[in-house]
Design a protein that fits this description.
There is one protein chain. A 14-stranded antiparallel sheet has the order 1-2-3-4-5-6-7-8-9-10-11-12-13-14. The chain folds into two domains: 10-161 and 244-377, Porin (Beta Barrel); 163-242. The protein contains seven helices and 14 strands. Helix 3 crosses helix 4, helix 3 runs antiparallel to helix 6 (227-238) and helix 5 packs across helix 6. The model is unreliable at 1-35 and 381-398 (pLDDT under 50). The chain starts with 9 loop residues before the first helix and ends in a 12-residue tail after the last helix. A hairpin with a 2-residue loop joins strand 10 (301-314) and strand 11. The protein has helices at residues 10-13, 19-32, 163-177, 187-198, 206-221, 227-238, 383-386, and strands spanning 47-61, 71-85, 89-102, 105-120, 127-140, 144-161, 245-259, 267-279, 283-294, 301-314, 317-329, 336-349, 352-363, 366-377. With 398 residues, the chain is α+β, with helices and mostly antiparallel strands.
């Protein structure tokens, strides 16, 4: 796709990053996140993961000794990702957009949207044919550029939602921490609980599922769960903070590209490889590599590689890292490249939520460093009060 941007990293930074963080992460995983049953052993019959995020920043500074404000600008970022997969059919949608603001008014922006549809010929063999559409835009007050690529081809592999088993491991760790369980549950019991969580949509209400999980644990451990344990299980099931998936895909295809510069480009070749792995409920990492261009790849191409890493340090603290690299070349021109990464630490201190984010982006004029500190405090309500157990929510019969 022939769409250039000074902040081209935005097209690759979304998916996946942290090559350095991933290397360190493996050491953390080995030391702190070993589990009896690998979370990727669980395969949900249907995967449906959705993630969306909106980030906003604006600054205004006016020194009375000079004419007009010195700083009156900001930005807004919107990202969206969805992954759906069933035995016969699947699709994915990834989008990222950035709007630059000047005097509160949008001044420029760029974005990328990629949608893929997959059809599996056999349920037991993860071979699929796919159709893909990828659009990109770079819009400014001076000049604008739009591009669209259409591709089709064949691929191999699947991704699986392993969140049910990750949640089972999460509340198991919580039950051990508060002294309800003296030892971990067996692999068979954890898989049985994960299967029930994966069928959550079939239950009329959450308390029915909690009751089933309660029965499974009590029967396997020969004990009774108290109100604290049931509340912990309920809160874990209701939380949407943890989403884990595993798997890999490799695909290759052919297509054509269109842009405002050229109505129709040469036939395009594309290759992509993706991989994701979860370690227990604490760790999620993912990798992506993509290469596309006409048949003469040495004269024109678009290469991108990216990675992401997330680690839950404890109940109220997490670390996320991303890294992306993109290199593009058009005919009769020198290659251009961009790179960027972010590192974000989020944690709670009492009733205060805090976040530290560092972003590094490579632009033609050099490296741009952006450090953001943010904090919010609930002045009227304590988190401890919010987590108080109301007796009588669950009543034991018999």
């Amino acid at each position: 796709m022939v769409v250039q941007s000074d902040s081209g990293v935005i097209g690759v930074k979304r998916r996946l990053g942290g090559f350095v963080v991933v290397g360190l992460g493996w050491m953390v995983v080995i030391g702190l996140s070993a589990v009896a049953v690998p979370v990727c052993n669980y395969h949900a019959p249907q995967t449906d993961l959705v993630d969306a995020r909106l980030d906003f920043s604006y600054r205004y500074f006016d020194d009375p000794s000079t004419l007009g404000p010195e700083i009156d600008s900001g930005w807004m970022k919107l990202s969206y990702a969805q992954l759906y997969d069933s035995p016969d059919f699947g699709y994915s949608l990834d989008g990222l957009a950035r709007i630059n603001l000047s005097s509160i008014v949008p001044s420029s922006g760029n974005g990328q949207l990629d949608g893929t549809v997959r059809y599996y010929s056999e349920r037991d063999l993860p071979v699929y044919i796919f159709g893909e559409a990828e659009g990109a835009a770079d819009i400014s007050t001076i000049d604008s550029e739009l591009g669209l690529d259409l591709r089709a081809g064949i691929g191999y592999g699947r991704f699986y939602d392993v969140t049910p088993l990750a949640k089972a491991l999460q509340f198991q760790a919580g039950l051990i921490e508060i002294g309800i369980l003296s030892e971990p549950l067996s692999d068979e019991v954890l898989m049985q609980i994960a299967t029930e969580i994966g069928r959550q949509i079939e239950y009329e209400n959450a308390s029915d599922l909690v009751t089933i999980i309660e029965t499974i644990i009590e029967n396997s451990m020969g004990m009774f769960l108290d109100a604290r344990a049931l509340l912990l299980i309920e809160q874990t099931l209701a939380s949407s903070e943890i989403k884990r998936y595993c798997g890999w895909t490799v695909q290759a295809g052919f297509g054509a590209g269109f842009s405002t510069i050229s109505a129709l480009s040469d036939a395009l070749f594309s290759f992509t490889a993706d991989s994701a792995q979860a370690e227990g409920y604490r760790v999620q990492w993912a990798l992506h590599v993509g290469l596309s261009g006409p048949y003469a790849l040495t004269s024109e191409y678009d290469l991108n590689a990216s990675a992401s890493y997330e680690y839950i340090l404890q109940e109220n603290a997490s670390l996320e890292g991303t890294l992306g690299y993109q290199r593009s070349k058009i005919r009769n021109a020198l290659p251009t490249w961009s790179a960027g990464g972010t590192l974000e630490l989020m944690f709670e201190i009492g009733t205060m939520d805090m976040a530290i984010q560092f972003e590094l982006t490579r632009r033609p004029d050099g490296w741009v460093r952006d450090l953001t500190l943010s904090a919010s405090v609930d002045l009227l309500e304590s988190k401890q009060v919010q987590r108080t157990w109301e007796s009588g929510t669950y009543e034991r019969s018999g």
